[in-house]
Each structure stands twice: as C-alpha cells, then as structure tokens.
Specification:
alpha+beta; three-stranded antiparallel sheet; two-stranded parallel sheet; 32% helix; Integrase catalytic domain-containing protein; RNaseH_sf; Retrotran_Ty1/copia-like; endonuclease
Length: 148
C-alpha cells in the first residue's frame, strides 16, 4: 500500500539535497525553528502519545528496556488502530480504506507458551515460556521473545 506524501515539516536545519528532493516531487516543505516543539503541534503530541504507550507497556510487562523497539512498534500499531476524533476514523482506515482487524490484538508482554518441537527428541520441557512483542510486519504472525 502506497500513499503519496504531500507535505513534510522539519526543523530549519534541512540540507539543500532534501529541499531539491521534496521540490522535485511536489511536496510542500514547512520549516520550523529548532527546539521550538510547539510549532510542530500535532506531530509532537503524536510522538508523545506513542512514547507514553510504549514506555507504559514495557514497564507494565516488566520486560527489559532492551526490548524498547518492540514496545514502540506495538505502540504505533495501537495508535494507528485507534479512532481519532478529528477524522472519526483510524489512521489505518485513512491509509488503507478499511477498518483494522483486532483479531491479533494481544497485550504487550503477555506470557505465552509455545510447543517445543525439540522435546520429542530429548527429555527437555514440552513447552517454552515466551512473551508477546506484537504483530510481525506484513504478516499474520506474532513476534515473541524467548528469554535466555
């Protein structure tokens, strides 16, 4: 799925290459003053919201901070599947023209058990304790973490 980019907003420290790239593709380039976050409005609010979801999910699951990238990926997925009042639709619907499926929704970091195929060959445990980290990109599968 491909959506054309119509506008971008970056701090006023952009390079000439970026300006040429954007102009060549008909993209409006809005400059903001560096470190004046209020000028970025909803972008800053969105980043803050996603950060709060990710950090809270990681802490609630009691998982190591080294898994922060998975927590942020999960937070973005949750954000994109959440109804937003301005459009009365989810970002997923706006881009994909259909409602997101909630069939794969699981709590981040929830404990799960997977069958250990190796157990048939030796006397090891028949299942392994893993933790849910989210949905695999471009797949119907889930990501799990197996602690060492």
């Amino acid at each position: 799925m491909s959506v054309p980019l119509g506008r971008t907003m970056v701090q006023n420290s952009a390079k000439k290459k970026l300006n040429y790239f954007l102009k060549e593709r008909g993209i409006t380039h809005e400059l903001t003053i560096p470190y004046e976050h209020h000028q970025n409005g909803w972008i800053e609010q969105t980043n803050h919201t996603i950060s709060e979801i990710a950090i809270t999910s990681l802490i609630a699951a009691n998982l190591p901070s080294s898994l922060w990238t998975y927590a942020f990926r999960y937070a973005v997925w949750i954000f994109n599947c959440t109804l937003h009042s301005e459009h009365r639709r989810t970002p997923y619907e706006i881009v994909g023209s259909r409602k997101p499926s909630m069939l794969q929704l699981r709590i981040f970091g929830v404990k799960a058990f997977i069958f250990n195929h190796q157990a048939r060959k030796d006397l090891g445990p028949k299942d392994l304790v893993v933790y849910h980290l989210g949905i695999m990109p471009d797949s119907k599968g889930c990501l799990f973490w197996l602690p060492e």
